[in-house]
Amino acid sequence: MEPAANKPRAQFDLAISDGGMRLKLAEARLTLTDEGIDYTLDGRTGLRAFSNLRSVRLQAVHGGKNSPWEAMAELSFGSGKPLFVHSSSPWGGDDPARDPVFIAFVEELHRRIPAADAARIRFLRGVSEGRHKVMEAVWIVFLAVFGGAGASILYKTLDGTIPVLQMLFPVAGLVGFGFWIHQSIEKAKPGVYRPDALPRDLFP
C-alpha cells in the first residue's frame, strides 16, 4: 500500500467545506500528492500532510426528495479544521457528473496514504455512535406515533368508516417515510473499514 515514489499529482474538482455554517458549499480543486492534500478554502491554502491526518470518515448523505444518495468524506487532522468533501453539487443536490470524480478522489486518497500513516489513521464509516443513537430514538418515536396512526386508519377502513381508496395515500406515505428513516439508519450505522477494502455501499 506504500505509494510509488514521485507519483504524479492528481486533481479533483469537488464541493468542500470545513464544517462551518454555509448556505452553499465551496467549489475547490483538490490536489493529492504523496505528502498530502492541497486545496484553497476561504482564501486559505496550503498542503495538509498525511502525517497530520487522524481519521477518514465516509458517509452516505441523503440528497433530498426524489434524489439518489450522495456521499461525503470527512478528513480530520491533528490541528486545524476538518475537511468535508462532497459528491453533491455546491447546493447539496444531485450532480451525476461529480459522482465518478468523488469516487476517484476517495480511491486515490487511500492509495496515496503511506502504509506507516495508514496503520495509525482511523478509517470510519457512517456517523458517530452518539448521532446514531439519536437516529434510532427518532425511529422508535416514529414507530410509536405514526405506526399507531397507521393502525388506526386501517382499523377504520376495515369497519367501513374510511373508504379503501382514501386510505391508500396516507398509509403509503407513512410506509414510504418509515422506509426512508430505516434506510437512513442502516446507511449511517457506525463502523470501521480497511483502506484496502473501501465501503462502496456508501458511494453515490
TrEMBL record:
Q: What are the protein's UniProt keywords? A: Membrane, Transmembrane, Transmembrane helix
Q: Where are the transmembrane segments?
A: 137-155, 161-181
Name assigned to this protein: Uncharacterized protein
Q: Which organism is it from?
A: Bosea vaviloviae
